[in-house]
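[Meeting: bench + compute handoff]

Bench side (C.D.) handed over the final construct sequence. Compute side (W.E.) agreed to return the predicted structure before the next meeting so the bench team could plan truncations. Sequence as handed over:
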Amino acid sequence: MIVTTTDTIPGREIHTVIGLVRGNTVRAAQAGTDFTAWMKNLVGGEIHEYTKLLAEAREQALDRLEADARARGADAVVGMRFVTCEIAEGAAEFLAYGTAVKLGP
């Protein structure tokens, strides 16, 4: 599955626009992770636990986007974007969305 943030795919022609596809996940950090992050805030630096959590959330949202596109018969997704928002204290939603397309020969 080709997934791109651009509206076109170099060397390929978009034959059919299928429509909006998306994948999302909602994640919250464990209490131990929050405590470690709080401690890290005191001394500064990257909070590796949060970096890992966010990377996993993005990958899961992207996997779900691709599954949605495949289920609708798409060859590719163009114009892909990520959006995130806090939905409760300590919990965030990650959404990947784009336009599913069928490519020409």
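W.E. noted at the follow-up: Residues 2 and 76 are 5 Å apart (CA to CA). C.D. will use this when planning the next construct.
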